[in-house]
Amino acid sequence: MSNSLQQSIRHTLHEAQNILLLSHIRPDGDAIGSILGLGLSLQKIGKNVEMVLADGISNRHRFLPGSREIKRKVSKNFDISVVLDASDVRRTGGLAKDRLHDINIDHHVTNENFARINLVDPHASATAEILAEYMPEWGLLIDQDVATALLTGIIVDTIGFRTSNIRPKTLQLSARLMENGANLPELYQLSLVQKSIAAVRYWSPGLAKIQVEDGLLWTTLTLCDRENASYPLNDDADLVNLLTTIENIKISLLFVEQKNGTVKISWRAQPGIDVSQLATQFGGGGHPAAAGADIPGTLGEVKAKVLNSTITFLADAMHVSKT
Ligand code: 5GP
Ligand code: MN
Fold first, then answer.
1. pTM beyond 0.85
2. Please, is 2 exposed, middle or buried when counting C-beta atoms within 10 Å of its C-beta (0-12, 13-18, 19+)?
3. Which residues form the pocket of ligand 1, taking CB atoms under 6 Å from any ligand atom?
4. Given a cut of 70, is residue 282 above it in pLDDT?
């Protein structure tokens, strides 16, 4: 990353007094860990920080220091806004939506470089990894609380250091976060391994409905499934991670019916297949191996449309890999 980019981020953060930090809807560990990691360190140099996630945070991440400060609405005036782990502004869920954001820090290859200053590193395994690398250059301290937040981001986004974008630097930076006081086995257990009983009950109909055809696997979670399981959130309870453990599958697809008349799609692909481009065709985005989109329509309509496109896409990808 260029020196002038680092300097302009450092300058922009230090010049501002009131800083708004945002990340994406249905926040995962990287969204929450990044917002808290950067937010707590800015507070420690005397900044007023407002941390906002449109969907709030789930109980499973409440153990993180500072997590109770995260709000659902922007309530204060601010000098600058920083968007973390979101490849487009729509992902913030309409927060400060008419604004040209000041800083965009992200690791998605589909990032639209929507801010005044854009730090986008698609080689990083997590946005928290980018923060762990550069915060010292910005004059921000990584103490135990900050290290805990950032290591949680890395653990969750890499599903415990096992995604294809892991690189030596991921482990080096993670080791440094441990040296700064983050407890890896504890964070691994709390943020990744442990599940609520409601989450597992919600998986159950999803698993029962799995279909497989020509290397493609798909299943659905309906609002009714969610209600029956008393699952409180609008995400997939990480079912998609379980789907990726099934052998001989090229692409897995999960459809999650939403209350607002859209369907949330998650694609997961084997190395060599890039589903991020497929997701952008549907207004979403992501990484080559893991991407998503929110598509308006009923579950039946969206499923038919997306399955069709994914079948054609996979057939083309297999054809290209054979030639
Ligand atoms: P997931 O399927 O777990 O929701 O997301 C997989 C990856 O794609 C994540 O990195 C996530 O941030 C990204 N992603 C998921 N949904 C969307 C979306 O609607 N728009 C964009 N731009 N990215 C998404
Ligand atoms: Mn991320």
1. yes
2. exposed
3. 24, 87-88, 91, 108, 110, 240, 266, 284-287, 290-294
4. yes
